[in-house]
UniProtKB/TrEMBL annotation:
InterPro entries: Endo/exonu/phosph_ase_sf (IPR036691)
Top-rank lineage group of the source organism: Eukaryota
The protein's name: Endonuclease/exonuclease/phosphatase domain-containing protein
PANTHER family with a match to the protein in the record: BNAC02G09200D PROTEIN, DUF4283 DOMAIN PROTEIN
Species this chain originates from: Juglans regia (English walnut)
Length: 134
């Protein structure tokens, strides 16, 4: 940990802190064996903190994991970025479903009208996301 702290200092980075429950991981044990830790941190340099002076870090709720993610919210020009639609996140448990492989194939088999491989990947991922959502 001391090497990590020194690396942050050498890089000009500092921990942004965290609002709310700062613990991201717990060991699923009870009593005196119960442990929780703050493993993840958002770090930034002075220039970034000046650009996003209203940025804050919060922990997300974990419904099926022993690890909670962190969310960095930023604001530009006095206007905060607010989430509209919930962002898509792939759930690893979907791979256990029998039809998941078929959904992946259907999303990627369609004909491509694209200019480059990056556009092909972007469109393929968008199709895959739409198929999984439906």
């Amino acid at each position: 940990m001391e090497d990590f702290r020194l690396a942050l200092i050498d890089s000009g980075l500092s921990d942004m802190g965290c609002k709310g429950d700062k613990f991201m991981w717990f060991n699923n044990r009870e009593g005196s064996h119960f442990t929780k830790e703050r493993l993840d941190r958002a770090c930034a340099n002075v220039k970034w903190l000046e650009m996003f002076c209203r940025a804050n870090v919060t922990t997300e709720v974990a419904s099926s994991s022993d690890h909670r993610s962190i969310l960095v919210s930023i604001a530009l020009g006095g206007q905060e970025f607010v989430r509209g639609e919930r962002p898509f996140r792939y759930e690893a448990c979907w791979a256990q479903r029998k039809d998941c492989h078929q959904v992946v194939e259907e999303a990627w088999k369609r004909p491509w009208l694209v200019n480059n491989k990056l556009e092909m990947a972007t469109k393929g991922l968008k199709r895959f996301k739409e198929k999984l959502r439906s």
